[in-house]
Amino acid sequence: xxxxxxxxxxxxxxxxxxxxxxxxxxxxxxxxxxxxxxxxxxxxxxxxxxxxxxxxxxxxxxxxxxxxxxxxxxxxxxxxxxxxxxxxxxxxxxxxxxxxxxxxxxxxxxxxxxxxxxxxxxxxxxxxxxxxxxxxxxxxxxxxx
Length: 145
What we know:
The protein is α+β, with helices and mostly antiparallel strands and about 140 residues long. The protein has one domain (about 5-140): CBS-domain. It has helices at about 5-10, 25-35, 55-60, 70-75, 90-100, 120-140; strands spanning about 15-20, 40-45, 45-50, 105, 115-120. The protein has a three-stranded mixed beta sheet with strand order 1-2-3. Strand 4 (about 105) and strand 5 (about 115-120) form a beta hairpin. It is elongated, with a radius of gyration of 18 Å.
């Protein structure tokens, strides 16, 4: 069974993070610069939250708060749903679907951050896998071209 570890091998383990003391403006600039929808909020080596586009919309924009004056710790999602590298892709997809989230930090057994996957990463990995299967079936049926 395929696991989150395979997705991380494919996409890499780069995770963008901010301290809880960063401003919303700093965090959103980082997200825009790297074309990502979430950053992990860290205190030292410990994950203490996640800050997402949804947090910006609900807790900053909708409440007419000033991004340069609001700290990430005030508006981040504190209840972070995480998975391990050994979590199956089906389980990760199911968690995202049922919890209505788009990002899952990946933690090693010791609680250290191993990476992060998004629903987009899972979809891309699945699409690549299907393309490979189709190619191999085509070769099987029609020979190498």
